[in-house]
Amino acid sequence: MNYRIVEREAFSIIGKGVRVSTENGENSKKIPEFWQESNQDGTTEQLLPFAKNMGFLGLCLDFDKVQHDFIYMIAVVKPNGANVPASFEERKIPKATWAVFDAIGPLPHSVQELWQRIFSEWFPATGYEHSGAPEMEVYPVGEDVTSDLNRTEIWVPIRK
């Protein structure tokens, strides 16, 4: 699995979130539905003017190991000094070291498959540990998400 290590300072994001369960693979169904809803209700359109820095982000935050759930947030990096629409939540992502992987292929399959491989193959083989910071998917603006050439990045916070 190809990856690169990236150090990134803390940054703020703005977006909308939904709590999803990890039980019975519910998150694999609910997250694509949440993207579809957000595309239809105008959420992604409202975020688009702010998506210049990294594109759209899919963040996994606030993991609850007891309830087996987390918040999945569709967001963008908040530009410095930007006025945030009241309908969006603002969150701070801490400074972290990230392992960045490329998922190539149509969504959501390419991303879901790579997430599985990261946890079942990459972590056990590398000696890295998850640092506990939020995880994120980076979706460049303008990509054809149904294309075999679609490229999405998965950013996993790590420590040795």
Commentary on this structure:
This protein is an alpha+beta fold and 160 residues long. The protein has one domain (3-159): Multidrug-efflux Transporter 1 Regulator Bmrr, Chain A (Alpha-Beta Barrel), CATH 3.20.80.10. Helices cover 24% and strands 41% of the residues. The protein has 3 helices and 9 strands, in the order ββααββββαβββ. It has helices at residues 26-40, 43-47, 109-126, and strands at residues 3-8, 11-21, 56-64, 69-77, 89-93, 96-104, 129-130, 135-139, 151-159. Strands 1, 2, 3, 4, 5, 6, 7, 8 and 9 form a 9-stranded antiparallel β-sheet that branches. The longest helix is centred in the C-terminal third of the chain and has 18 residues, at 109-126. The radius of gyration is 15 Å and the shape is globular. The two termini are 18 Å apart. The mean pLDDT is 94.
Helical percentage: 10-25%
Sequence of secondary-structure elements:
EEHHEEEEHEEE
CATH top level assignment: Alpha Beta
* DSSP E strands, number: 9
What is the name of the CATH topology? Multidrug-efflux Transporter 1 Regulator Bmrr, Chain A
Going by CATH, the homologous superfamily would be: Regulatory factor, effector binding domain
Low-confidence stretches: none
Distance between the termini: 18 Å
Name the average pLDDT: 94
